[in-house]
Amino acid sequence: MNDVIYETVVSTVAPDGTPHVAPMGVRYRGAEVILMPFKPSTTLANIAASGHAVLNIVIDTRVFAGSVTGRRSWPLQPAERIAGVRLNCALNHVELKLAELQDDPQRPVLRMARVFEASHAPYIGFNRAQAAVIEAAVLVSRLHMLPAAKVDAEMNYLQIAIDKTAGPEEREAWSWLTEAVARHRAAAQPSTQESAQEQRP
User: Fold this and answer.
1) Would you say residue 64 has pLDDT above 50?
2) pLDDT for the residue 201
3) Can you tell me the mean pLDDT for 8-24?
4) What DSSP character marks residue 28?
5) Where are the alpha helices (DSSP H) in 68-147?
6) Alpha-carbon distance 186 to 139, whole Å?
7) 200 in helix, strand or coil?
8) Which tens digit of pLDDT belongs to each residue from 27-37?
9) Is residue 40 reached through a cis peptide bond, with omega within 30 degrees of 0 on the bond before it?
């Protein structure tokens, strides 16, 4: 399998018609798209139920930042050939059909065949701030796993790219991420204080 991972956004639809949008790293194997969602996940459940998904290529990094900070409602429109939806802001999209699901206790492998694809806007390249937002979004998704010092060090480094190259969209996305870090720290503070009190003689 090609181990190069490309950061995209996958949109799916639940059996009741509810759309779901989630950033996801994908691999390409020839004409197939390989998805490896963690269990449990809404994306996995929706694809298993419907057999379809849409791969969205976007440069609006607010979608990435929003998805890890509770902002999952984005303008959508119906897909062309499958019962699915795509992001309005997608530069291009690929409509996918499930070809094979290789189950796994942690990360099933979904082989997705291309049904239809279309381009909607030119790709002019990422700026450094957009890459920084995506990296920070990954950090925020792992706040419960990472030491605070590591998060602070990486966020401080990424801030340089934000300060130098961010436009309005990237600055808004960055503000959501820094607010999420602050909320996480505030929520963890009482338990830290209680633990310190318990250790006092």
Assistant:
1) yes
2) 47
3) 96
4) E
5) 128-141
6) 17
7) coil
8) 999 999 999 99
9) yes
Burial of residue 197, with CB atoms counted within 10 A of its CB: 0-12 exposed, 13-18 middle, 19 or more buried: exposed
Q: What residues form DSSP beta bridges with 78?
A: 85
pLDDT of residue 125: 84
* pLDDT band with cut points at 50, 70 and 90 for residue 3: confident
Res 191: pLDDT: 52
Return d(Cα 59, Cα 67) in angstroms, integer.
Answer: 14
- CA-to-CA distance for 153 and 175, rounded, in angstroms? 17
Measured distance CA(111)–CA(85) in Å, rounded: 19
Q: What is the pLDDT of residue 196?
A: 45
> Which CATH entry fits the domain spanning 6-119: 2.30.110.10, 3.40.190.10, 3.40.50.1460, 3.20.20.240?
2.30.110.10
Backbone angles phi, psi at 147, to 5 degrees: -65, 145
CA distances from 14 to 40, 73, 99, 186 (A): 14, 15, 19, 34
Question: What's the farthest any 2 CA atoms get from each other in the chain?
Answer: 68
State how far the alpha carbon of 116 is from the alpha carbons of 49, 82, 94, in Å: 20, 9, 6
